[in-house]
Amino acid sequence: MPDKKRTVRVPIGPQHPALKEPESFMVDLQGEKISSVALRLGYNHRGIEKGCEERTYMQDLYLVERVCGICSHSHATAFIQAVEEIAGLEIPRRAKYIRTLIAELERVHSHLLWLGVAGHEIGFDTLLMYSWRDRELVMDLFAELTGNRVNYAMNTLGGVRRDIAAEQVPHIQKIVDALEERTKYYIELAMTEETLAQRLSGVGYLSKEDAIRLGAVGPTSRASGADRDTRRDDPYAAYDELDFKVITDDHCDVFGRTVVRLGELMQSYSMIRQILKQMPEGPIAVKAPLKIPAGEAVSRYEAPRGEDVHYVRANGTDRPERVKVRAPTLANTQSVAKMLEDGYLADLPIVVAAIDPCFSCTDRTIAVQGNGDSKTMGWEELVRYGVRWYRDRGVDPSRIKVRGDGLA
Amino acid sequence: MTVGSAVLNILVFPGFLFLVAFGLAGEFVDRKLYARLQNRQGPPWYQPLADFLKLLGKENVIPEDADRPTFRLAPVFALAATVAAIFYIPLGSATSVLPFEGDLIVVLYLLVIPTVAFFLGGWTSRSVFATIGAFRAITQVFAYEIPLFVALLAPALLANTWSISGIAAYYSGHPWLWLVNLLGFGVALVSLLGKLERVPFDTPEAETEIVAGSFTEYSGRRLAFFRLAIDCEAIVGASLVAAVFLPFGFGLPPALGILVYLAKVLLILGILALLRTLFARLRIDQMVHFCWSVVAPIAFLQILINLVVRELI
């Protein structure tokens, strides 16, 4: 037990420049070393799952796409796959290929974004500026292919909304070539740059056993040598027809996570080329019913951050009875506390960033039912609870005006 | 020296007005170069001045628990010490405004005061981020300050004087001897990066870890003066290094001499901007380790070289 007088408690979050979204790390420090971390999520719950229950499947698709701004296609595809499975819809092969193309382009933009964020977290802003400039190529390509730079809205029930025209193919190839060139440069940089190696090697260690035990997913688990990838293990869309390697690494640290992501970028370029070559002709969507028959399905999807799981239960109407989203970050947060053990405060930002967290996508509320403790709070009661909570901490919110009415 | 020329020296040249103007211009050069090297557009020339004026008009907040006098005075001390140091550094000609035997030590001493002010300001503001930043700043001082002292001691040994003006005059008389001090020049540049808290030595204000370090609780006017002090410190530090290690153009007519001086300082600022583009931020332990195991030995090697050279001539 560390001496209480000698530890300093540092609140990293919910508002902190290192964090792009609200979450809280209460860090106890001894000098520059971390002695313990208390992690807390739940600052940005948006009620998306509940919202889904009150909208039609078609509207839900657009709502689910907004779970995450970066892996929007991942959530939309994971959701739509579950719905299509319940409805027994078999989508055209061309639609599968287009979904896969968008998915891999999304991985490219997400990993390039991550590289920049990682650079920024260790004070290497030049890397941030370079990789985000290159990322613009993919973003513009998205605008060209789907009409949007983010939230591409490419999926529809039974297929995809837009076709890839033959004259767009050379342009995609040109961009992939340019990005491949840049990625090779970044790989060389990561392997040779001294300060980068010093800040990444040995930082945020997560052994293979811990990665599996704590349920890490995606590049976080693959960098610890856990060979798991939904694209290969449980193929969806067109992945079973593509030839690709699952990149793993034995470094088990932030450097390994960088190597895995850079390797995955190279794999994505190769997959995109295969897709463009093999893409079959044909329709891009089948007609889908408005009402989905009763049933339930779980859909797995390898998002850039790891395995994304969606559960949908249908009851025969045009609205789902229940939608459950498990974003990859939730699976990875457990391992963060492990990675931070005995680390330095200076390494906290990069260790947290190395799982490529998306905390707002992760936030869900859970009410534990069945043990008699659960109760429902009305608005009035909730307000009184809030006032009491603040008063106990020496803040008097009764004078704060909300639209002219006092709270208390 | 008459009262009139003293006032002119303190307020206009090379004192307050010149230093502030050059400091803001230097910040612009640094930011613009940094941006261009990163493939960005960069700010317009008046941005540092605009930032300064804007901060002057902003609200001043002092934390409730802060030690008010120290919190208030820290920025003033930082700025005053930097401005005072410029009077002992030769700029356009080989003599400074107030040269005396031993002014090298005084300048080095005055240039530590801003860092001590950062420490006191951060420490007394009672915020956990500011406290950590303050302690990192003071830890870093011990890492870079001694290599800097030793690096500046070496040319002084060769010139056999403790006065910066004397050193400048000596090397002007022996034009090729400055090449002997190249190692020390490198050490001084690295130490300057530490002094100015720039990447890779910007741990005391590492944004992604401890928000703004010592300056976290500072706002408005006081933050503006802290930033101005850092700008001026960059100029004074660069001037010192230029006077000792780049002894060119001291014999020229005054106007031309000033131009050469400006060019030397801008060159040093350019090198500093380039260096901070190239690296990631080191951790404080890595920084201290690097300074003691790489930079300090090189500085001592420089002393050894200069002792040998002194025997030879």
What does this structure look like?
The complex is a heterodimer of chains A (408) and B (313). Chain A has helices at 48-53, 57-65, 72-87, 93-121, 125-146, 169-192, 194-200, 208-213, 218-222, 230-233, 254-278, 328-340, 348-354, 359-362, 379-392; strands at 8-12, 24-30, 33-40, 155-156, 159-160, 295-303, 306-314, 320-326, 401-402, 405-406. Chain A is α+β, with helices and mostly antiparallel strands. Chain A folds into 2 domains: 48-362, Cytochrome-c3 Hydrogenase, chain B (Orthogonal Bundle), CATH 1.10.645.10; 379-408, no CATH class. In chain A, strands 1-2-3 form a 3-stranded antiparallel β-sheet, with no helix packed on it. A 3-stranded antiparallel β-sheet of chain A has the order 6-7-8. A two-stranded antiparallel sheet of chain A has the order 4-5. The model of chain A has no long low-confidence stretch (mean pLDDT 85). By secondary structure, chain B is mainly alpha-helical. Chain B has one domain. Chain B has 12 helices and no strands. Chain B has helices at residues 3-11, 16-37, 47-56, 68-85, 103-124, 128-159, 164-173, 182-195, 207-210, 220-245, 254-278, 284-312. In chain B, helix 2 (16-37) crosses helix 11, helix 4 runs parallel beside helix 10 (220-245) and helix 6 (128-159) packs antiparallel against helix 8 (182-195). The mean pLDDT of chain B is 86. At the A-B interface, strand 1, helix 4, helix 5 and helix 7 of A face helix 6, helix 9 and helix 12 of B.
Q: How many DSSP-defined strands of chain A?
A: 10
Q: Biggest β-sheet of chain B, characterized?
A: none
The poorly predicted ranges of chain A are none
Strand content of chain A: 5-15%
What is the overall pLDDT average of chain B? 86
How would you state the average pLDDT of chain A, rounded? 85
Which oligomeric state applies?
heterodimer
How many beta strands in the DSSP annotation of chain B?
Answer: 0
Helix content of chain A: 40-55%
